[in-house]
Amino acid sequence: MVQLIVGNKGKGKTTQLLEKVNSEIKEIAGNIVYLDKNTKHMYELNNKVRLIDVSQYMIEDSDEFVGFVSGIISQDHDLQQMYFDNFLKIACLEGQDILAAMNKLEKLSNNFDVDFILSISMDESQLPEGLKEKVIVSL
């Protein structure tokens, strides 16, 4: 399943994402990975959550990002959830159509039973029609 936390920049999406990940780690049996553009939120995350600074991995487009996510999934058979903060930035999708990448993430989610929770700096009204049903928080 893919879930979205959407809202314009500075509206509190990261706070919502951090609250969700820290509450989920207490409830689920599997592992959680948190992808971000830096390590700024390292101390706000539960120490059982694996934080990955995507900027360190020379990802240049959304296909490389999906490949990166696939590699993480392939290395952890206990992976249950992945959180993507600043999704448009870390997936190299700023100012681009996000539908193709979202469809690939949905397929990965279904194939490997991993849930993806994304924060997207975009107003809900700007989302493609097929993605609006995935919104869990709109700020």
How would you describe this structure to a colleague?
The chain has 139 residues and is an alpha/beta fold. The protein has a single domain (2-138), classed as P-loop containing nucleotide triphosphate hydrolases (Rossmann fold), CATH 3.40.50. It has helices spanning 13-24, 62-75, 87-90, 99-112, and strands spanning 2-7, 31-36, 50-53, 79-84, 115-121, 135-138. Strands 3-2-4-5-1-6 form a 6-stranded parallel β-sheet. The radius of gyration is 14 Å and the shape is globular. The protein starts with a strand and ends with a strand.
Secondary structure: elements and pairs:
Blueprint: E1 2-7, H1 13-24, E2 31-36, E3 50-53, H2 62-75, E4 79-84, H3 87-90, H4 99-112, E5 115-121, E6 135-138
Parallel strand pairs: 1-5, 1-6, 2-3, 2-4, 4-5
Could you write a compact summary of the structure shown?
The chain is of the alpha/beta class and 139 residues long.
N- and C-termini, Cα separation: 21 Å
CATH architecture: 3-Layer(aba) Sandwich
Unreliable residue runs: none
Quaternary organisation of the protein chains: single chain
Overall shape = globular
Spatially, the strands of the biggest sheet line up as 3-2-4-5-1-6
CATH superfamily: P-loop containing nucleotide triphosphate hydrolases
Quickly count the domains: 1
Mean pLDDT: 92
Quickly count the helices.
4
Q: Which sequence of SSEs, written as H and E, runs from N to C? A: EHEEHEHHEE
Q: What is the CATH T-level topology? A: Rossmann fold
Structural class: alpha/beta
Tell me the strand percentage band.
15-25%
